[in-house]
Amino acid sequence: MLGTPQSEVLKPNRICNLQTMKKIIAFGASSSIHSINKKLATYAASCVPNAQATILDLNDYEMPIFSVDRQNKDGFPQLAHDFKDLLMSADGIIISFAEHNSSYSAAFKNIFDWISRFQGNLWYSKPMLLLATNDGDRGAKTVLEQAHNRIARKNPYDIPHFSLPNFPKTFDDNKGILDSKLESQFQNALAVFVGQL
Ligand SMILES: Cc1cc2nc3c(=O)[nH]c(=O)nc-3n(C[C@H](O)[C@H](O)[C@H](O)COP(=O)(O)O)c2cc1C
């Protein structure tokens, strides 16, 4: 394991009624310790009203590289069960995808492969918000499209998605998304997600 485990629980940003508070699981689909996608996922989770958000760090879920033979021989790693159980306990899931060679990061793909082998729907049955960012003009749109195609195809909800280009210029740790047009697009996607919780 390369990173320091960094899962955290965000303070609810507005508490009206504890019984109606929604449980959100959010993470950057990256194993980078300074992941900009983890920052964007955390920001998005903090914008969900009446929610208790848990931010996962994929470094906490590093497992052997998936193979059918390994699964047949050894079964599922405990971490795959743990990750699946967290997803199953959530009312909604937020993922921000890092783009590596036009695709998922290896850290995310390995988790995806393991948990896709469980019976049932996993994240195909929950409201989801899919995000992506990088430091360039395309905003990691290639991986976002790939993820959206894969997840929205099986998920009964209308899965909103948003890509933030040029992260170092368009995002501030304290202020969030700086560009008003991009912030408006983000809020539209967020509103669809919140409406489905
Ligand atoms: C192995 C590797 C491959 C990458 N490939 C791409 C790519 O295909 N497209 C892209 O936009 N950025 C690519 N990048 C740059 C990442 O988008 C950038 O590192 C971004 O910060 C990753 O998000 P993260 O900070 O959340 O890990 C790549 C980075 C690495 C380390």
Distance between the termini: 34 Å
CATH class: Alpha Beta
Indicate the low-confidence ranges by residue numbers.
Answer: none
Number of domains: 1
Question: Could you explain how this protein is built, in words?
Answer:
The protein contains seven helices and eight strands. The mean pLDDT is 92. It has helices spanning 36-46, 68-74, 78-89, 106-115, 141-152, 167-170, 180-196; strands at residues 8-9, 22-29, 51-56, 92-97, 128-133, 161-164, 171-172, 176-177. With 197 residues, the protein is α/β, with parallel strands linked by helices. Helix content is 37%, strand content 18%. The strands form two sheets. A six-stranded mixed beta sheet has the order 1-3-2-4-5-6, with helices on both faces. A two-stranded antiparallel ribbon has the order 7-8. The protein has one domain (8-196): Rossmann fold, CATH 3.40.50.360. The structure holds flavin mononucleotide. Flavin mononucleotide (FMN) binds at residues 28, 30, 32, 35-37, 98-102, 134, 136, 138, 140.
